[in-house]
Design a protein that fits this description.
Structural class: alpha/beta
CATH architecture of the largest domain: Alpha-Beta Barrel
Number of strands: 18
Largest sheet: 8 strands, parallel, barrel
Distance between the termini: 44 Å
Bound molecules: D-gluconic acid, magnesium ion
Strand content: 15-25%
CATH class of the largest domain: Alpha Beta
Number of domains: 2
Number of helices: 13
Helix content: 25-40%
Strand order of the largest sheet: 4-5-7-8-9-10-11-12
Shape: globular
CATH topology of the largest domain: TIM Barrel
């Protein structure tokens, strides 16, 4: 069975998504997610101009060889654009193999290791009261683990904090910021460090000790600041503290690790097993945040998680609404199969996104399940997809009060 065609589809049902569609000589179609938030067209071109021509005529079953061909075989390696493109090809080939063999992809990964994947949602509020309303709304939807983000007194809009919800309001999704240039937000680390421990103190008072709570610091702290934050949050027993320091320098986490026992998660911006070597072998983290969509697909992430497993490190794959339902499905097949699964982010796509991407995964009683459809279990409605035109969208940047550009 040969690859006959590889097409790139760009659509924007609420957010921008890039999808690779691979068709075989037998007419079997596989989908791969090639979305890289804010840099979408770079991956589209990488695939269209440099990868698709190489795929035509290759054995559609040779997933590992194709992966090696596009990574080791390429002179320019690694990096988010390359690894997102490789991920799309890899997912599409796993989708095809599942369809041809008539089984969901998780069966090809060794079968089920658990009933479902524990999911965590995004709750946020400009104040602690608004945050509590958002948390309660999510608990009503069935979530059993919650990421919490709040505004900081004295600061304007803080990244990751959505519009405040009313009681009982259903969370839909976070729209892309469709401005011609990135929005600029103000940041003050000292104000943040003063405020956050009070937030968690209040949450534990109101919600009790059991609910798993997660928090994302978006790479904004120095090692010492991160150590201070970790220590101040220890009494509130977080499930994890995410991205406390900039991820590009793994050595920063040595100091954090020496100072605090708060569980650490990092890696949504890392894209290769090589980026993780120090983090894993020195046991500097507890959870791997990579998404299969940005880290070389199912093949790339499975290899990464096997290495992590040797060091007692578990998965917590990135799945905001800027990764498509195809990427989400790939993560879910890994989640139920991997021995060292930890938790799965689930930021719920909008109704419009889910009309274009028809999914067969389910969420019930706090657990996600990839479903039993052969392959990845996601179909793309072409006609509908063409109606949502690509519009550039950027993530915000942030500056300190004196105007200095600050880390993510
Ligand atoms: C998360 C993330 C997202 C990212 C976004 C970037 O933990 O879900 O930090 O909010 O910032 O996905 O594209
Ligand atoms: Mg994050």
């Amino acid at each position: 069975m040969r690859i006959e065609r590889a097409e790139v589809l760009v659509t924007s049902p609420g957010r921008n998504f890039v999808t690779l569609r691979v068709t075989t000589s037998d007419g079997v179609v596989g989908l791969g997610d090639a979305t890289l938030n804010g840099r979408e067209l770079a991956v589209a071109s990488y695939l269209r101009d440099h990868v698709a021509p190489l795929l035509v005529g290759r054995d559609a079953h040779a997933i590992e060889d194709t992966w090696q061909y596009l990574t080791r075989g390429a002179y320019w390696r690694r990096g988010p654009v390359t690894m997102t493109a490789v991920a799309a090809v890899d997912m599409a080939l796993w989708d095809i193999k599942g369809k041809v063999t008539g089984v969901p992809v998780y069966q090809l990964l060794g079968g089920r290791s658990r009933r479902g994947a524990l999911a965590y949602c995004h709750a946020s509020g400009s104040t602690v009261d608004a945050l509590l309303t958002s948390i309660r709304n999510h608990l009503e939807l069935g979530f059993r683990a919650v990421r919490v983000q709040t505004g900081v007194p004295g600061l304007g809009k803080v990244y990751g904090v959505g519009t405040d919800q009313r009681a009982g309001e259903r969370y839909d999704y976070e729209p892309a910021g469709r401005t011609a240039r990135p929005v600029e937000e103000e940041w003050d680390t000292a104000a943040y460090l003063r405020h956050i421990p009070h937030v968690f103190e209040r949450l534990r008072e109101e919600l009790g000790p059991e609910l798993p709570l997660l928090h994302d610091a978006h790479h904004r702290l120095s090692p010492n600041e991160a150590a201070q934050l970790g220590r101040s949050l220890e009494p509130f027993r977080l499930f994890w503290l995410e991205d406390c320091t900039p991820a590009d320098n793994p050595e920063l986490l040595r100091r954090v690790r020496q100072q605090t026992t708060v569980p650490l998660a990092i890696g949504e911006v890392l894209t290769s097993i090589h980026d993780y070597r120090t983090l894993i072998t020195e046991q500097l983290i507890d959870y791997v945040r990579s998404s299969p969509a940005h880290t070389g697909g199912i093949t790339g992430v499975r290899r990464l998680m096997d290495l992590a497993g040797l060091y007692g490190i578990r998965s917590g794959f990135h799945q905001p609404t800027d990764i498509s339902p195809v990427g989400m499905a790939a993560a879910l097949h890994l989640d139920v199969a991997l021995p060292n699964f930890g938790i799965q982010e689930y930021m719920q796509h909008s109704a419009t996104t889910l009309e274009v991407f028809r999914t067969s995964y389910t969420f019930s009683d706090g657990l996600l399940d990839p479903g039993e459809t052969p392959g990845l279990g996601v179909e793309l409605d072409d006609d509908l997809a063409t109606r949502f035109e690509y519009t550039p969208a950027y993530l915000p940047v942030n500056r300190l009060r004196d105007g200095t550009l600050h880390d993510w």
